[in-house]
């Protein structure tokens, strides 16, 4: 009987170790802070957007940061840089005062893309000039059911948009859901209990 108790205890400890290693790895990245932050009212235009997450961001081509001004113009310009948990996107000089919307989409540590919108207000006009045309890469806040940070990259056509959608699908399929780990662990535990009971009966 003592051997059975020892075996079951060992299996339980192994199960906890598997879950402890699986659950943090399968969690999506969470935004910890941003600059500008949600609801900021700035009298000086920022020159970049800095996003900080709780886990490292995968450095991939699907990472996007778009900044849309009061009149629909795009103000993000340049390459999105990833440094561990920090994502930085340069901005061209902002122009009109009013509300600006930051829309981001990044590849989290578990292989799934995460996205969100951040709003801030420029209270004094900046030196930049609007292009006069809405940006095709900016989040489409008027499209029903569409994630505001899922828009295509600047200058993209229909084919490139489809490629981005396909990349996002591939990213979604690369992560392992938590329920898979839980199910596998439960099967191992049940199998261990069956073996332990059979061993106990054979000893009796």
TrEMBL record:
Organism listed in the record: Saccharomonospora azurea NA-128
GO CC, one annotated term: periplasmic space
First and last residue of the signal peptide: 1-27
Keyword Transmembrane helix included in the entry's annotation: yes
Name the record gives this protein: Uncharacterized protein, copper resistance protein CopC-like protein
Record Pfam families: CopC (PF04234)
Biased composition (Low complexity): 142-152
Primary localization class, coarse: other
Biased composition, class Acidic residues, residue ranges: 158-173
């Amino acid at each position: 009987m003592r051997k059975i108790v020892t075996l079951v205890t060992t299996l339980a400890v192994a199960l906890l170790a598997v879950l402890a290693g699986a659950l943090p790895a399968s969690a999506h990245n969470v935004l910890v802070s941003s600059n500008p932050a949600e609801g900021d009212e700035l009298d000086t235009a920022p020159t970049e957007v800095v996003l900080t997450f709780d886990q490292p961001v995968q450095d991939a081509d699907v990472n996007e940061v778009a900044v849309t001004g009061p009149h629909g113009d795009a103000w993000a310009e340049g390459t999105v840089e990833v440094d561990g948990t920090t994502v930085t996107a340069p901005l061209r000089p902002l122009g009109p005062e009013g509300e600006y919307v930051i829309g981001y989409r990044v590849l989290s540590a578990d292989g799934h893309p995460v996205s969100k919108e951040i709003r801030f207000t420029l209270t004094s006009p900046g030196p930049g000039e609007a292009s006069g045309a809405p940006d095709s890469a900016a989040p489409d806040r008027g499209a029903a059911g569409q994630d505001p940070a899922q828009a295509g990259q600047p200058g993209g056509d229909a084919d490139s948009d489809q490629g981005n959608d396909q990349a996002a699908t591939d990213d979604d399929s690369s992560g392992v859901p938590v329920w898979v780990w839980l199910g596998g662990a439960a099967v191992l535990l049940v199998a261990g209990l069956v073996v332990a009971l059979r061993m106990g009966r054979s000893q009796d």
